[in-house]
Amino acid sequence: MISPRLSLLTLSRLNCCFQSTVSGLNKGLAASENDLQKADAAAKEIEEAGGPVDLSADLDKLQGRWKLIYSSAFSSRTLGGSRPGPPTGRLLPITLGQVFQRIDILSKDFDNIVELELGAPWPLPPVEVTATLAHKFELTGSSSVKIIFEKTTVKTTGNLSQIPPLEIPQLPDALRPSTNRGSGDFDVTYLDSDVRITRGDRGELRVFVIS
C-alpha cells in the first residue's frame, strides 16, 4: 500500500530512478558488486516510500503477467541464480531471453516463464525454447508468499514451433534431494499496479513490471 505521506509522483520518480539504475545490466546478469549495491539501495528507497505491503487487502494487484527487469541472483552468472542452475556464457551456448511470472489469484497458479536460445553446431541455427515452471502459491503472511513446484513444460518456438511441448513432471519426494523440495518463499516488499519488488528466502532482490 502507498504511504499517504508521499505522492504518486514521488513513487513514480523513484521507480524511474530504479529502472535507470538497472538499465544495461541484462536483468542482473551483467551486474558488478557495485551495481548490486546501487540497485539494492534504489529498491530500498521505493520500499520505504511505499510502506508495508498487505496482500490480504491487495491480492488482486498480483494478478497478471509480470516481466522481470532485474534479479540480483543472476549476478552469479547461472540461470538458477542463487540456486543450482546451468551457467550462461562460453561454457554452454545458452542465451537468456525474457523472463516472466504469470500469476492467477483465483486458481493460485504461479508460473515462471523463461525464454532461452540454445546454441547448435554450425551450420544449424540456434534453437529457441520457452520453459514454463508451473507452481501453486499460498500466502504465509501479510506480505509473504510460498510457491510449490508442480512441473516444467518446455516448448520450442520459432522455426521449430510445430514440435509438441515436452512435459517434465516433478520427481517423487523419495527421489528428490532433501535440500530441494520444489518450493520457495519470498516477501513482496513493494506492490502497485505496475511494479512489484520481492526479496527471496536466499536474499535475492527481484523487480518486475506488468507486461
Share of helix, binned:
10-25%
Order of helices and strands: HHHEEEEEEEEE
Oligomer: single chain
Strand content: 35-45%
Number of E-state strands: 9
Q: Tell me the structural class.
A: alpha+beta
- The radius of gyration is 18 Å
Average residue-wise pLDDT? 85
Q: Choose one word for the global shape.
A: globular
Residue ranges: pLDDT <50 for 5 or more in a row? 80-85, 174-179
What is the rounded distance between the termini?
Answer: 21 Å
Summarize the biggest pleated sheet: 8 strands, antiparallel, barrel
* Count of discrete alpha- or pi-helical segments spanning 4 or more residues: 3
- What strand line-up does the widest sheet have? 1-2-3-4-5-7-8-9
Quick synopsis:
With 211 residues, the protein is α+β, with helices and mostly antiparallel strands. The protein is built from three helices and nine strands; from the N terminus they run H-H-H-E-E-E-E-E-E-E-E-E. The protein has an eight-stranded antiparallel beta barrel with strand order 1-2-3-4-5-7-8-9.
List the helices and strands and how they pair.
Blueprint: H1 8-22, H2 33-50, H3 55-58, E1 64-71, E2 94-104, E3 109-118, E4 127-139, E5 144-156, E6 166-169, E7 183-191, E8 195-200, E9 205-210
Antiparallel strand pairs: 1-2, 1-9, 2-3, 3-4, 4-5, 5-6, 5-7, 7-8, 8-9
Helix pairs in contact: 1-2
Which labels suit this protein?
18% helix, 3 helices, alpha+beta
Structure in words:
With 211 residues, the chain is of the alpha+beta class. The protein is 18% helix and 38% strand. The chain has an eight-stranded antiparallel β-barrel. A hairpin with a 3-residue loop joins strand 7 (183-191) and strand 8 (195-200). Helix 1 (8-22) runs antiparallel to helix 2. The radius of gyration is 18 Å and the shape is globular.
